[in-house]
Specification:
alpha+beta, three-stranded antiparallel sheet, globular
Length: 210
């Protein structure tokens, strides 16, 4: 690969990303091309900027140390019509509250989430697990050993975040309302509805939990 022109390197990486269909770790691309990581990351960043600047129909997502090609959110409705894909179900206010608490306090227990919300959150957390937005990540070393939960890479992808460091600073709400996340990872007003694009939601999902 030493004699490859930069255009060839870009095309090769593009082909690897397309063939993967899933997030692929940057080290795997480095091994495939026999290239150093800084060079590969430079090309990946260039491709990501190109797709965004030229408003192409695809985007390159950077998720921690992995990269993935996906369709541009601007054309989501057109793509759904083309494949007769039903619009993803919206997350309810309780689901967004639980997701926000876990995002900021992870790893955390269900009991802690319940304590903040003041209601039982077991059903809501089950739905978030089904949508692969949160996952178990061990047990707390206290009597009873309650399960710990954290957000997933699917959470980062759904909210267009590179890492948890991209989450905005948690505001002091002073007891007025609940924290909620928008698609871009911003804190939004509790009255607003947010829809997670790209999440693998079950088509019959109907979030009316308490």
């Amino acid at each position: 690969m030493e004699n490859m022109e930069m255009k060839e390197i870009e095309s090769a990486i593009e082909g690897i990303l397309f063939a993967s269909g899933e997030p692929i770790h940057v080290d795997r691309i480095c091994v495939a091309l026999d290239m150093d990581r800084p060079t590969v990351e430079q090309v990946l960043q260039k491709l990501m900027d190109y797709y965004a600047y030229e408003r192409r129909g695809i985007r390159l997502l950077h998720i921690e140390d992995s990269w993935q090609l996906c369709s541009a959110p601007d054309y989501a409705d057109v793509i759904r019509r083309a494949f007769e894909i039903r619009k993803p179900a919206k997350l309810s206010q309780p689901a967004l509250e639980v997701l926000t608490i876990i995002a900021y306090y992870q790893p955390t227990t269900r009991a802690y989430v319940d304590q903040i919300r003041g209601v039982d959150s077991s059903y809501t957390m089950g739905l978030l697990q089904e949508r692969k937005l949160i996952e178990e990540c061990g047990r707390l070393q206290v009597p009873g050993r309650p399960r710990l939960y954290r957000t997933t890479k699917q959470f980062l992808r759904a909210f267009h975040l590179t890492s948890l460091d991209d989450l905005p600073e948690m505001p002091d709400l002073g007891g007025e309302g609940q924290m909620r996340l928008s698609e871009s990872g911003e804190i939004i007003d509790p009255a607003e509805q947010a829809e997670i694009t790209g999440a693998d939601a079950p088509e019959d999902a109907d979030f009316r939990e308490g």
